[in-house]
């Protein structure tokens, strides 16, 4: 079965995102609080829907670096974060550093793969755009150290 996709402009490139849904089943992700940092509103909305389908609670979303940093460095309970590698043309590294200081695992999201990561960020899961809900779930489980199957 072919899952529907949406094509969205992303920094001058066209990004297709599969919007396949997963059913609400008990997973290791149920109830997890996920900080979502994504500057493209449509992509953020799709991620919110996917995370909701996985039973996660979204913290944010943050569409810009300042609010993302405030959430990452603040007192909000966060189990894991999804960080778009490039927020309005600027790298998300300051947010990643604040989360790392709190020992919050993270997943990077990028249309460019791992090429934009710093050495300190290598080893974190990277979701290459486009991705499916199953890819998102596997990356989150990997970041949390849970089984990916």
Explained architecture:
This protein has helices spanning 41-53, 65-73, 93-101, 133-144; strands at 5-10, 13-18, 33-37, 57-62, 80-84, 86-87, 90-91, 106-110, 126-128. The chain is of the alpha/beta class. It has one domain (5-22, 29-144): Response regulator (Rossmann fold). The strands form 3 sheets. Strands 4-3-5-8-9 form a 5-stranded parallel beta sheet, with helices on both faces. It has a two-stranded antiparallel sheet with strand order 1-2. A hairpin with a 2-residue loop joins strand 6 (86-87) and strand 7. The longest helix is centred in the first third of the chain and has 13 residues, at 41-53. It is globular, with a radius of gyration of 14 Å. The two termini are 20 Å apart.
Number of strands: 9
Give the count of structural domains: 1
| Protein structure class | alpha/beta
User: How much helix is in the residues?
Assistant: 25-40%
Distance between the termini: 20 Å
CATH superfamily annotation: Response regulator
How big a fraction of the residues is strand? 25-35%
Question: Which strand order does the major sheet show?
Answer: 4-3-5-8-9
Order of helices and strands: EEEHEHEEEHEEH
Let me know the largest β-sheet: 5 strands, parallel
Estimate the global geometry from the Cα principal axes: globular
What radius of gyration results from the CA coordinates?
Answer: 14 Å
- The overall pLDDT average reads 85
Determine the number of helices (DSSP H or I, runs of at least 4 residues). Answer: 4
Overall CATH class: Alpha Beta
Give the low-confidence spans.
1-7, 10-26
CATH architecture: 3-Layer(aba) Sandwich
CATH topology annotation: Rossmann fold
């Amino acid at each position: 079965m072919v899952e529907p996709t949406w094509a969205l402009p992303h920094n001058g490139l066209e990004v297709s995102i599969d919007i396949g849904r997963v059913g609400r089943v008990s997973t290791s992700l149920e109830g997890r609080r996920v900080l979502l940092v994504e500057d493209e509103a449509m992509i953020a909305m799709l991620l919110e829907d996917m995370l909701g389908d996985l039973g996660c609670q979204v913290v944010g979303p943050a569409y810009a670096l300042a609010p993302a940093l405030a959430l990452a460095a603040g007192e909000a309970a966060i189990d894991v974060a999804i960080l778009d590698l490039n927020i309005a043309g600027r790298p998300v590294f300051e947010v990643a550093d604040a989360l790392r200081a709190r020992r919050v695992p993270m997943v990077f999201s990028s249309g460019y793969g791992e090429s934009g990561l710093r050495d300190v960020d290598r080893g974190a899961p990277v979701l290459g755009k486009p991705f499916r809900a199953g890819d998102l779930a596997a990356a989150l489980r990997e970041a949390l150290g849970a089984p990916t199957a």
